[in-house]
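User: Design a sequence. Structure:
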């Protein structure tokens, strides 16, 4: 389901990521400061990450390594696990927008489940990357 719906969306690449960022910032303006003013390079990195996710969907070891690395890097940018619901909603909205009829309830459920794994894995790596605050 993930691969077939992505195949429909994939030709729209930069349009998908542009839609994602518009949606994210419109619904969550407080996160805008975490990103560079110009998003071209960031959009390319996001699209590459989504493509890697789909490519390695059945290669758990590789996928977990990619997600853990992304989590550590995002911790360095100031992202926190609390951002994941907003990011997930915007990603799903962008995918749905460009998938058209390929965005079935099953596709939505599959992408939601995969995003849950992405958020969980990245969140764990973020937590490990950021030292805990000392107890008061």
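Assistant: Done.
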């Amino acid at each position: 389901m993930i691969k077939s719906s992505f195949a429909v969306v994939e030709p729209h690449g930069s349009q998908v990521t542009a839609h994602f960022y518009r949606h994210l910032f419109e619904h969550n303006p407080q996160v805008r400061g975490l990103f560079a003013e110009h998003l071209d390079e960031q959009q390319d990195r996001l699209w590459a990450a989504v493509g890697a996710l789909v490519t390695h969907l059945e290669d758990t070891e590789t996928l977990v390594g990619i997600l853990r690395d992304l989590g550590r890097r995002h911790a360095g940018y100031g992202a926190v696990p609390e951002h994941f619901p907003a990011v997930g909603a915007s990603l799903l909205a962008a995918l749905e927008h460009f998938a058209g009829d390929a965005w079935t309830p099953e596709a939505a459920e599959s992408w939601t489940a995969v995003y849950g794994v992405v958020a969980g894995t990245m969140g764990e790596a973020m937590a490990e990357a950021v030292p805990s605050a000392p107890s008061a």
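The first helix runs from residue 2 to 9. The chain has one domain: 2-128.
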